[in-house]
Write a structure and sequence with these properties.
By secondary structure, this protein is of the alpha+beta class. It is built from 26 helices and 20 strands. The protein has four domains: 1-183, no CATH class; 200-371, no CATH class; 395-506, no CATH class; 546-664, no CATH class. The chain is 42% helix and 17% strand.
Length: 666
């Protein structure tokens, strides 16, 4: 099977896209490049740097395709099309720049030779010119050079001419091409997976590519299903989630490096049956969550992976009525799996336990057994809520208990709703505002200020009325109807006047944790199946545990992160470099393990699928790349000057470590 080799310039390749002589097979992912990446590509072409080769597929088949993220593709190709396997981001970007797309307005500074996306500042600065203006077909260089010389007389016109000429020449820069011919679609899919295996392409992307080649029309099925659930306020059931659901159903476990070979070996009947299970399962799971549990929006769910075993269980449930105990048991397991962070680490392994359990003769009992709580009495205690913030699954539980208690928006009378819009859109509100607690003589920590016991669910409209005022003021503001004891009770907010002042904030937290923990225990008990034996309480292994980060940075230094961990029997503080942490996360995005120095000790950064685990003191901090990045963004928004960085002695942790979700970090 020959591999043809050739070279084509940028303008020829861009024209081939417009004439549909280059198409995108369905196995490809979508266009994801940001303007900064596009600008770097244009700069590399300008400077003559290597820009990589392109990989195409020539076939007599008519494979399913997906749309390139470009406009202007017209008519029928004059020659048989080539299917682009590697180089989509680059060629799409070039097509967009050379066709003057609004979000691909790359500009060039003739003085500094810098490239970036157009901004309000560059649009007013005559030193910046659009790449499109120079590199488009038929562009005349002399008027551009003359205009630039008039505006920037300090630069020799010959230099301006040379730079404009090099910029115009990017359309003649050649790309090296390899064209695979004679390969069947399933083998092309394997090649695609291998080509992308060492790049930041997610396991789910590779699985989707394999499915698309193995089972034509996969992407269309997933897109239609995702659109269906987005309309029902479950947008997180997107193509990536549905890919995981389908592969989990077919393979009986989570995604891993061996998944692609198993998917290729799956029969059409297995794939059809798996997809039917996913669709049927979702049509049972989502209404159960929406109606029984009042989870109206998928944004509320702490871990969407926890839905996968339930999709299999309900998607393959025989066509007979389900008894109340089983239905309640499903919700009970879902709540416990959420608050116990079932899938915060070793996701593939745990799905390999739970999906087969969901297919067993007593699925709910086996799922609870896998959690280690079968026969145990689960209670949420005051201590369980210490150190918990918005990243904790108990935050999800705090919304549910308020919703089940009929909590209403303050001053507007409508029930709190996760799908409300405009001014009634739900927000979480600091009952004691941050402004009254920061720098208070009580020396309240970030974790205390942002503790979920200080958060209530009200509308943005109500939140703006409160602004930064203390509850001692806005609870009884003469300009607003006073908040009654009943209105506050539905949100589990203590009514005692003495707790409304910042001086009594810790007493307020203690009182509200007691109210919330009792309500959470009652909610769990409501769904606890009657056939479960009463036994000793199964304690939450993270009860009383917290981890707080604080970033210290300066304009000339990437900064240091201080980590403070505490638990019932330990307190630990360590430091790590912010640049090292960001580098480790970037490597993990490419599927690569790495190392990072923490508290004077080199620690391994482990990657499994899209889950990253880093040992930090007493904890194995684990979570998805997305949650790690959210944590980093949050810390950057709350950065302190590097001059305030405290003296932290290296204290390597030598004892057993506990799995701790990165979402719980404050």
């Amino acid at each position: 099977m020959p591999v043809e080799k050739a070279e084509k310039d940028v303008q020829t390749l861009v024209s081939a896209i417009s004439s549909k002589e280059i198409l995108l097979p369905e196995i490809q992912r979508g266009y994801v490049w940001k303007p900064t990446q596009v600008a770097k590509l244009i700069e590399s072409l300008y400077r003559g740097y290597p820009t990589g080769s392109l990989l195409f597929w020539k076939t007599n088949e008519t494979p399913a395709t997906r749309r390139l993220a470009v406009n202007g593709m017209q008519g029928m190709p004059a020659v048989p099309p080539l299917y682009l396997l590697d180089g989509q981001q680059r060629l799409t970007s070039l097509h967009r720049v050379l066709n003057d797309y609004e979000d691909a307005q790359i500009v060039f500074n003739v003085e500094t030779e810098a490239f970036q996306n157009q901004s309000a500042a560059t649009a007013k600065d005559p030193r910046w010119i659009k790449v499109y203006e120079v590199a488009r077909p038929g562009a005349k260089q002399y008027p551009i050079i003359s205009r630039l010389h008039a505006h920037v007389p300090g630069i020799d016109p010959d230099v301006i001419g040379e730079r404009v000429g090099r910029l115009a020449a990017i359309r003649t820069r050649a790309f090296y091409m390899e064209v695979l011919t004679g390969f069947p679609y399933d083998e092309i899919a394997q090649i695609f997976v291998r080509v992308n295996s060492g790049r930041p392409l997610k396991t789910s992307d590779l699985a989707l590519a394999t499915l698309s080649a193995r089972w034509p029309g996969t992407l269309e099925r997933l897109e239609e299903e995702a659109e269906h659930w987005a309309k029902k306020h479950y947008p997180d059931l997107d193509i990536t989630f549905l890919t995981r659901a389908l592969t989990g159903t077919v393979l009986g476990r989570g995604l891993s490096t061996w998944s692609h070979g198993r998917l290729i070996a799956a029969s059409d009947e297995e794939l059809e049956r798996g997809w039917a299970t996913v669709q049927r399962g979702l049509r049972h799971v989502v209404p159960m969550l929406q109606e029984n549990l009042k989870v109206s929006n998928s944004n509320l769910i702490p871990s969407h992976v926890a839905l996968l075993p339930l999709i299999v269980l309900l998607g393959e449930w025989p066509d007979v009525p389900m008894d109340k105990d089983t239905a309640d048991g499903i919700i009970y397991w879902f709540l416990l799996a959420s608050i116990r962070n079932r899938y915060s680490s070793s996701t593939d392994t745990r799905l390999g336990q739970d999906i087969p359990a969901a297919r067993g003769p007593e699925p709910v009992k086996q799922l609870l057994s896998n959690l280690g709580v079968r026969g145990s009495r689960i209670e949420v205690t005051h201590q369980d809520l210490v150190g918990r913030t918005i990243g904790s699954p108990y935050f999800f539980l705090s919304y549910l208990v308020a919703k089940h208690a009929g909590a209403r928006d303050w001053w507007h009378g409508t029930e709190i709703s996760a799908i409300a819009e405009a001014g009634q859109k739900l927000e979480y509100h600091h009952i004691h505002p941050q402004a009254t607690l920061k720098d208070h003589v009580g020396a309240y920590s970030k974790t205390e200020i942002n503790n979920l016991a200080n958060l209530a669910f009200i509308s943005g409209k109500a939140n703006r009325k409160i602004s930064h005022r203390s509850p001692s003021v806005y609870f009884v503001d003469s300009k607003l109807p006073p908040l009654t004891e009943g209105e506050l009770a539905a949100h589990f907010v203590p009514y005692q006047e003495s707790l409304r002042h910042a001086e009594a904030y810790r007493e307020f937290l203690h009182a509200r944790r007691a109210l919330l923990s009792d309500a959470m225990t009652m909610l769990l008990s409501k769904y606890r199946p009657t056939w479960l034996d009463e036994d000793v309480e199964a304690a939450d292994p993270l009860a009383g545990c917290s981890l707080e980060f604080q970033l210290f940075q300066s304009p000339w230094d990437s900064g240091r992160m201080v980590a403070r961990a505490s638990g019932p029997s330990f307190d630990w503080t360590g430091a790590l470099g912010m640049a090292d942490l960001e580098t480790a996360i970037a490597a993990a995005d490419g599927g690569l393990d790495s190392d990072i120095e923490i508290a004077g000790e080199t620690m391994p950064v482990r990657v499994e699928s899209d889950t990253v685990t880093i040992p930090i003191g007493p904890y194995l901090v684990s979570g998805t790349l997305r949650t790690w990045r959210q944590m980093l963004d949050r810390e950057k928004a709350d950065v302190q000057p590097l001059s305030r960085f405290p003296a932290v002695e290296p204290r390597p942790w030598g004892s057993e470590q506990i799995v701790f979700p990165v979402a719980n970090i404050e």
